[in-house]
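Example with several molecule types.
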Amino acid sequence: MSLASGTFNQSYAQDMAILRTRTQRVVLLAFLAFLFTCPLFISETWLTIMTIIGISVISVHGLSILTGYCGQISMGHSAFMAVGGYTSAILCAKLGFSFWAALPCAALFAGLVGLIFGLPSLRVKGFYLIMATIAAYFIISWLVHFQLTGLTGGVFGLAAPKPEIFGMVLRSRASYFYLVMIIACLATVVAINIVRSRVGRAFIAIRDNDLAAEVMGINIWAYKLLAFFIGCVFAGLAGSLLAHYYAWASIEAFPFMDSVWYLGMLIIGGMGSTTGAILGTVSFRLLDYLVIILAPMLAETFPAIAPQASASLSLIMRGLVIIVFLIFEPRGLAHGWGLIKAYFRLWPFSH
Amino acid sequence: MGVVYALIALGFVIILKCSQAFNIAQGHIVMIGGYLGFTFLIMCGLPLWAGLLAAIATAVIMGLLIERLALRPLVGQPVLAVVMMTIALGFCILEGLAILIWGGEFKVYSGALPAISLRLGAVYVPAATVFTVILAAIVVAALMLFFRYAKIGLAMRATAEDEQVAQCAGIRVTTVYAISWIIACVTGVVAGVLLGGESGVSPYLANMGLKAFAVVLLGGVNSIGGAIVAGLIVGLAESFAAGYLDPLTTRGGLATIFPFIIIIIVLFIRPYGLFGLKRIERI
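Resulting structure tokens for the full complex:
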């Protein structure tokens, strides 16, 4: 990591610090201050959007560790979210757990299910693993939908009560927003620190060349499964939050396409970067919002396609954005952000 | 059903062999094929042969466009980029287009294809028509002859063997890529017309393509013969599951996910499939 001119590391502690300069601290504090005061002045619509963004950020952090750092592509991410969502809903509704006990249980259980479907990763990789995780999605959704109906309520789903804190139910949008944002911030800190640790470096080694990593003494078997476990714990956390946000757990809240979108967010943000996961999620969700605004205008201009305009437009827009990023900026927004930062770090002497 | 699976899997295997690209959009090409069949056979009212030809012509254009615009810039990129590209193509662009143009509705044109139902002993082949089998067999045979005798077919086999050597021998590898995509689109679209003619077409038809991956994996991803044999096996296994296993589970539906269970089992036991080459890696 290059430092601004005139900034030097004088101890290992400084070298390891996430926030190195005063500017970074000020910017982060300002951002957090904005984040936690914004329910006071933004509209309900934006509050909803930002809550969903927060939940997606948690989920994409998991995918970022699994796919971006460890290189194990998963297209079953929304299935693992569904596992988390259903687990906490069942624990709350049927067994009378409080939300705060159900949330970690949901995350853990999603992680365990992830371990099971991560087992093929020990023998296969790349495309084969994608197929295994797609299969995982369909098998899990079949189990939820048709088999374990006594537990999951089958097609109808089941109610997930809103969380409660000190006897106060988090019913308003703003209160849930705070809950999601606090957990999202914690998840971000955890994600950053996982990838800086020994574990994270092992993941990167496995991603870059798993055979070479094994030769160098990294236990691929353990680390690949660990990556699946961590990724799915994040997914379970996000799934549980989503189920309680809708106050209803049903498989419709976790469609197959979401797995694709999470991968898309990762690509737009940039693989192998925690900042990228956040940037990608935010820009992807904002793009959605743009489509919601644009679709009625398009429908007015071309009345022939009016009924399907919004559904198809959002699909095509998302696809185009992913394709454009793949072709023109495969390293994602995080790379562009890095370039901008580097430019200003060296400014005005860029050479 | 098995024959159609084989047809879908064939297009996939051809692209994989020629350009090392895993084409996840194959299922969506099938869906587009189903809608094209509906457009040409019902909306335009063309006779069967003309409708099929028109659908195939559209498939050729589609294949060319996909290869040139989306896949060519990604030559030499990592597997993930190519896979994501085909995912974005299939799940977003093609599905979006299907919704935009045909409204994403369920369309039926079962009367358009000549239907003769078939029953082999205890094996009930769901809604299989002899016409489907015949047409699929014709396409497969044509492809076999193409690879054996046509010059470009030979070039494609050479490219599949070793890209760089083929290039040194004067084969235009980019043309080969384009042709492989065209063939994949044509087989996909033909399969789509057949499936649409049997059971109607809707965006869910794309999941059929996902199931065809069970065929691909069972047969071995780089074996054309494997794709055909495994197609028949998976088709039969699915109807057996519908007949014998569904009554055992509480609410059924096992048959629909049976191909996915096959995927998991194959990946656990024999990741390179029945006829595929065992992957040997060197650092």
